[in-house]
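TASK: fixed-backbone design
INPUT:
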């Protein structure tokens, strides 16, 4: 939603991650239940649902950016020294 600007179930489903419909449905419900996203009917097409970030979800954006930065730094397993 944040970086890919996806808003519709079909857009999430078409993502390269290849998530199953039942898993995607569950995750969207969980995010909505936590107050991170909201869903409402698309005003232009009443048959579609639009998912958007709530204020709580928007507040998570800096955390996501930091995780992306961390991942870019440590993207190779060989960079981890766990011993």
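OUTPUT:
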């Amino acid at each position: 939603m944040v970086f890919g600007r996806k808003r519709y179930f079909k857009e999430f489903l078409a993502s390269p991650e290849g998530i199953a419909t039942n898993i995607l449905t569950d995750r969207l419900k969980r995010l909505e239940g936590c107050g991170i996203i909201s869903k409402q009917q698309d005003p232009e097409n009443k048959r579609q649902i639009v998912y958007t970030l709530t204020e709580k979800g928007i507040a998570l954006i800096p955390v996501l950016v930091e995780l992306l930065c961390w991942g870019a730094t440590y993207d190779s397993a060989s960079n981890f020294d766990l011993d």
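COMMENT: Residues 13 and 19 are 6 Å apart (CA to CA).
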